[in-house]
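job 3f2a | input accepted
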Amino acid sequence: MSDSCLRAHKGTWRRRSVSLLAGSVLILTASAAAGEEAPSAAELDWRPKSQLPESVRNALPAFCAGGYLPSGTGEGNSGIVGAGAKSPESSVPLQASGLHAQYEIDRELHLQGDVRLQQGSFQVTGSEARYRQSSGQVAIQGPLVSRGNGFLLTGERADYSVESGRFDINTATFLLHGPAMRGSAGSLSRMSDSTVQIRDGMLTTCGPQQNDWAIIASDIKLNQAEGFGTAKHVRLEVLDVPVFYWPYASFPIDDRRKSGLLYPQFGSSSSGSGGFLAMPYYLNLAPHYDATLTPQYIQGRGLFNEAEGRYLSGFGQTTVQLGYINNDSTYADENPEKSGQRWALDASTRAVFGSGWVGYGDYSAVSDEDYLRDLNRSLEINQATHLLRRGGVRYQGPNQYFDAYLNDYQTISDRIAQVNRPYAQLPEVIYAGTAEAGLFEAGLETQYTWFYRDNESLTGLDKANGQRFRARPEVALPMRALWGFSRPSFSLDYTRYDLEDYSAGSGSFDRTVPVVEWDNGLYFDRQSSLFDVPYNQTLEPRLYYAWSGAEADQNYIPAFDTALQTFRFEQLFRPDRFIGGDRVGDANQLTVALTSRFNDLVTGAERARFSIGQVQYFADREVTLFGQGGGTRSRSPLAGEVVLNPLQNLQIRSSGLWDPDTGDTEQGRSQLIFHSEDYRYLASAGHTYSKGELEQSDIAAVFPVTDRVSLIGRWVYDSDLNRTVGSLAGIEYNNCCWSVQVVHQNYLTNDRELNSRLLFQIQLKGLGGSGGSSTSVSDAIYGFNERERRRFGTP
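job 3f2a | predicted structure (795 res):
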C-alpha cells in the first residue's frame, strides 16, 4: 500500500478492491463496471432449453421448456464458486470491491457501485455496502445477489456477519440448484451454506412465473445437508387457490427419506363401493428400517388401514405389509353369514449369506376370497387363487445347486374343490451337480419331497399323502467344435414312494426308467449385406433323438406335482412330455429342426431368427396322466417361432403350432412391441390362440399428442366370449413441475363380471405425489415402468 494511503485517516478511493483481516488493509484489483438491477434468483439462472449447456439440455425431458444453469455458472458470479459446504471462519479474509470506496481505518469501509464481497464459499454483489470492523457486520443494499454452494439468493437489503457467516435478507428470492426449487420470502436468513430460515415464504419446483403449485408457510426451514425442510402453518396452493392446510409439515427436498405426511391418495372403483381417500404417513425410523401407515376412508365400507414396514440388515431386506378393516359394512350386508372384519398379510424376506448361500421367505394370507378385489391397494399379492407361503435356503456354486424349503398355499376361493387344491411340500430338498471325468461329463439331480394336504373328504389316489425321492444320474460324452456339436447321454430316472392313506396297494414302491438322448447340431454361416448393412446369416440344422423305457401304466401313482407340458418349440428337445416327478413319459422319437439367424456385423445385434421343427414318433405314447398325454400319431405338429428386431426399439415375435395332417393351427402367440428411444412412445399388439380353448387380441399404446399431453390405452377382446375382457383408457399431462394421470380401467373378475375403477396419480415434482394409476398401467403396458423411471429421473 502507498504511503499516502497509509497516512490518510479518512479518504476516498475509486475502482479499488480490498481484503480485510484483523484490521489490515490491502489494495487488490480493479472492479468491473456498475451492475444493473438483479432479477429474481430463479430468473437469474433460468434459460430456455436452446440456451442451456448441452449436458443440461440433454438431461431435460421433452415436456420441459427450459431449466437452470448449473450452480456457479450464472450471471453475477465472477466465475467464483464456493469450494465446500463449511461456513466461513474468521481466519478467512473478507474480499471486497466497488467502483467507489471510502474507508475509515479500523472503523468502517463504505463501498458504492458494483459492490462485490466474498469470504470463503460465500459471495454477494450489490449496489452499496458498509463494513464495520468492530462488530464484523456488513450492511448491503440491493438489488443484491448471493451465491453459495448450490444456492442462489437475491434481495433488497441484507446484513452479513463476517465472524459467523450468517446472512439476513429482506424481500428475498432463492433458488436451490440441486432439487431445482425456487421461492420467495418476506425475510430470509442463511444460517450456513446448507441451512436457510424463511419467514412468510413460498416455495415451488415450477419455473419462473409459473406458480402452478406452491407451498405457502409462515416459517420454513430448509436443510440441504440433511435433505429435508420443515414448515409451520402450511397451505398447498394450486393455481393460487388453497387446497390443503397443515399446521406443521416436514418434506424432502431431495431423494433422501424423511418422516412426514405423504400426499393424499384418492380414486373410485365399482367393486370398492365408490370413492376412497387415503392419508399416508411415512416414518423414517432409522437408516435401516422404516414404515408407512395409510389410514383411508372408503365410501360404503368405512375406515380401512394399511401398513408397511421395511427392514434392511447386512444380509438383505424384509418387508411386511398388512391391511385391516374392523367392520366392512358393505361386505357384511352382502354376506350376512360372515363377519365384517377383514384383513390381509404379505411378508417377504431375502438374505445373502455369502459364498453362494441365500435365504428367502414369502408368506401371504387374506381373510376371504374377495379381499383382493374389494380392498387391496398396496399389498404385493399378485395371485388371486392360491397364496404362496414359502421359505428356505439356497446354494448356487459353479457346478452345484442346492435348495431346501417349506412350501404351502392358501386357497382363497371356496369354489375350488379339495381335490383340485395343491399339495404342500413339507419339505422339499433339491440337489444337482456336474463333474468332468476325462472325456465324459457326469451329472446328478436329486429331489426329496414330503407331500401333504387335507384329505379328510377325499378318496382313492386323491387321498394319498407321503414322501417321494427322485434321483437322475447321467453320463454324457460332450463333443464340441466351431462347426457343430454332438452329445450322447445315458441316464436313469429313479423314483421311490412311501405313502400314507394309499388305496392301490402297498404304500412303498419304486420306479426305474432308463433314458437315452443324443443331441446333434451343425453351424453354417455366410456373410452378405442388405441396404448397405453387412450381416452374417447362419444355418443351424439340429437332430435330437430320445428313448425312454418307461412302463406304460403309471396311473397307480398319485399326481402330486405333475402336469402335461404345453407343446411348443422348446419342448422339441426334451425327452419327457410331463413336468413334475410322478410321470416319466415313454419315448422313441427323433426331432428334426432348423434355425437361421441374421446378425448385424456393425452392432452385433441379432436382427432376425427363424426356427421350425417337428418330432417323428417311432412308437405310440402309452403313458398318460389319468388319460392325458398319450398319442398314436406318427408325427407332431410343426412348431415354429419367428423373432424380428428390424430396429433397436422394435421387436416382432410369433410362435405357434400347425398340424400338417389337418391343416389347422393348434396354438399361436404373436406380439409386436415398440418403444421410442426415450420411451415416450409405447405400443404393443398381440394375439393369443389355443384351438377350442382361447382366442384373445390385445392392443396397448402410450401416445404423446404434444410434448406434455399423452394418451394411454389398452384393450383386450375375447373372440370366444365375443366380449371385451379388459380395457384401460387414460390421459396424462406433464410439465416440469407437476404431472397428472387419469385412468379408467375395466377388468374381468373371477365370476365373469366386468368391474371398473377410476384411478388418479398426481405428482408434484420435487415433493412426491399421490394416487395409484401407474401400478395398473405398468401391469398392462410393456415398457411403462422404464418410462416412469426416465420421467422422474429415478435410478
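job 3f2a | Residues 545 and 728 are 47 Å apart (CA to CA).
job 3f2a | closed
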